[in-house]
Amino acid sequence: MRDARDSEQTDVHERREFENKTVTRAPEKSMVGPCGCPRGSDVPGRKDMVSGASWIRAATPWRAEGRLKGPWCWEKSVHPIAQRCSALGMRFLFALWLLGLGVWTSPHTVVASSTPESFVEQRLPSKDKDVFVVLRNGLTVLIRPRDDTDVVAAKVFVRAGSIYEGDKMGAGLSHYLEHVVSGGSTASFTEEEARDRLEKLGGATNAYTSHDRTVYYITTGAPHWRDALDLLLSYVTECTVDASQVAREKAVIQQEFKMGENNPQRELWKLFMKTAYAVHPARHPVIGYEDLFVQTTREDLIQYYSSRYQPQNMVLAVAGRVDPQEVIAFVGEKTAHAGRTRWNLNVLPLEPPPTGSRWAEKSLPLARMVQAMVGFRSVALSHDDLYALDVLAIVLGEGRTSRLYQRLKERDQSVLYVQAFNWTPAFVPGQFVVSMTLAPQHWPEVLEGLKDEIRKVQEGGVSETELEKAKKKVIASHVFGKETTEKMAASLGSSYLDTGDPYFEDRYAERIRRVRKEDVLRVARRYLVESAMTVAAVVPQGASSGTEAATEASSAAATAAIPSAAQRIRLDNGLRVILKEDHRFPFVTLQLYGIGGVLLESPEEEGYAAMTASLLTAGTQKRSKLEIAQALESVGGSLASGSQYNTYFVAAKVLKEDLALAVDVMSDVVLHPVFPSTEVEKKKQETLLAIKKQDENWQTELMRLFKKNYFQNHPYRHDILGTEASVQGITRDILQRFYAKMVVPQRAVLAIYGDFRTDQVIPLIKKAFGPWPSTGPFAMPAVDAETLAVEEMRVVEKTSDKTSLGLFVGARGLDLHDPRVVVLDVLDAVLSGIGYPGGRLHSALRGGDKDLVYVVHAFPFSGYRAGYFGVITQTTLKNARQVESIIHEHLDRIMREPISEEELQRAKDMVITMHVLELESLEAQARSAAVNEVLGLGYDYALRYPDLVRSVTAHDVRALAQELLKDRLVVRTVPEKPVEVLSKPLPFRQHVR
Description:
Blueprint (H helix, E strand, L loop, with lengths): L3 H4 L79 H15 L14 H4 E5 L6 E5 L4 E6 L5 E8 L14 H9 L9 H11 L3 E5 L4 E8 L3 H14 L4 H18 L3 H13 L13 H4 L4 H11 L5 E7 L3 H11 L23 E7 L5 E8 L8 H12 L5 H9 L5 E7 L7 E8 L4 H18 L3 H17 L4 H15 L4 H10 L3 H11 L6 E7 L6 H9 L11 E4 L5 E6 L5 E9 L12 H7 L10 H9 L4 E6 L3 E9 L3 H13 L5 H17 L4 H13 L13 H5 L3 H11 L5 E7 L3 H12 L24 E7 L4 E8 L8 H12 L6 H8 L6 E11 L2 E10 L4 H17 L4 H18 L3 H13 L6 H10 L3 H11 L4 E7 L13 E3 L2
GO molecular function, one term: peptidase activity
Protein name: Zinc protease
GO biological process, one term: proteolysis
């Protein structure tokens, strides 16, 4: 089940490091959504979009304080008395303005003694401790109290998406308004006050817009839930739609349009939707069309806000350590001014069924491969066939054992990536989609292979084994998806908004269990109709996917969340094992990390670690590659292996009853890999394609250029994937020798967290991993220290086929064992926030009346005997000189001037809060413990980290800034078209082609 919120979250600006920061960070994810906004995944079903390490923390619409020009206006010539208004008086003036617009007149009077029941109109059915109510003004409030966490997540869902924009359809009103509302001025808070309060809450806030909703959310520590709700409710009930912020965000979104042009996957999704839907407004991109967007006025936004941001049009979901009655009373009082209004119904056109196949192709200069989607009209979220179609998607294209993966990737070796998913929004019949990445010459055979596999299902159905595996995979995913507080709030709110049933996702799992083989056969025949399929492809310039010809021929595809009771044991062979029982959720996560990755490679061995680690699951002495995948996928579990800069890893996740199986399979791939020659050759070809494709991403291109010019001798200058020459020279014998060097027990740590009994799991571990032979004493690799690689101001510039200029300003960094890494984290928070955007750089480049960039963030990379600190952004060629100058000014300023105690405390609170939030899931806790232990920080480093941050002083920050930030390496990727040059070049310029 993939609904609208999965595919079109256009402004989930998740901020992530570029590197596998070795303290507590999660594994890498791709970061640009279909509208061009950074997020967790590009499109529904898309996984692992970016090869190599290319993390970024992107900008959200935080605002610096500007002159308030809302309805009452702070301009002296208009309302002099308004300059002296209190927050209460401002709220009163705002209410008068709303009365003039005919919006939200409330008959209710708020008194200090109001009880929760005085605000409640209706109580909805609920289970366990959940409390669901509808307030008298129409606002639905869903509350899930939890006593096992100190985190609270709050999300406001507004029925304001691109499909509801009426006569302004295609202008991107919903997305534009989200930029203005989130963090903007309200009747109760100026922009600066909102930003200050958010930073005190930890800065874990964001917003996104999709086809049918806009969502605003904050996750914070339990003591701060009132402040979080106060901000969210102020955004959605009393935003002033400040004129200066409207103008600023318009320029920001224009840069977002340009940024989206550099994302082939986003362009593919737009092309597919426009082709699949002929009438329904789902065919239009959420961000809109730039020529229509630029015509949007502040008055348009005010009118849209007044018509859509109504209490009966909203759902508030709160999960975490809260008292439901206190939440109801607080929300009732804070929204009492927002009275119920007339329903604003939107009648959407019905999308007629396709009468024939549809195809579309778009050529992009930056595309290196063909990226294609083949779709079939599916069902809406409430349709009974949803469940069988979801099972069919898993059988066809989810995981390594799926039919399309085995046919197109394993047997034919004609695709780099393939996945099937069933996109089922609530507002229109969805699409059953197969998404693929491939070389242009393979398109005809890939399309024919896809159709052949579909025909096989339509003729022979699916096996009982495939059915049960798919069902268990869905159910396991459901269990895994309820682990964190934020996910719980998201599930409640989205389920209710989509179906009117807060427990829809719970009932979904039960209905999946009822799917029969006959159901899957029936839906395959009914919906996967070849003569009515939609095909869209984005292709390299000058190449053709052959889409049209192929289609025509086919008609003649905070700390409480941190583990506190973990224990460490050591096996006789030196393997360290960390165990943490947690019986809240019925699953177990296993994370094995060892010293390896790029750190272990010589210049001649580039890419060896990545290929060795990835092929651990390609076959063992007793299991084939397919049998390894089947073993865990058949029980709904997962198994993955890979390599990063400092480590290799093998990770598994299973339901608790399958722990013994997971331990057996994991130990088998770690101890007994055979690196079959056929799999080695397949992986080589796949890696060569990935190497060719990696510079499609502007961040990857920029960071690769920086590292090759920053590091002189350290292995970090190498690409994780290696070079074409090094990969072409890899053989089975080479991998076996590198495996013997890298995969050894005395340099590895296994963390097992979840629902198990320690006394029962220890014998399993000893039996499975005890035979792993030790090779001698533990020793870290001998590498040159390179934390001071910049000794003068230097500039490196490269021409690029992107349409925007990429800029990275890098400086010296710290070794991961340096105790001052916490100081550098605080410095990072001051400059640009932690986990989510904020800080000085964001205010200077996107705050107030600034619209110079869409994305900007600073981050530290602290590695083994090497590190750097840098600022990354993307901007226009026109603004490049000014943006670069502002970045240098702020780096100079933090060296020159001590930060205030208030700013210091806010930064430390932000670092600690984000640290706690990042470690809420068991998977993150296990990964943190394993990585920190194997790198010598200690498995309990995450427990000690908050106290280390609290000890940081303003003097520490300034002293470290003076030591690290004086000399800088500036790296630019400059667009070839239009052909322009930066004026006034810096003293030293090294051109790299």
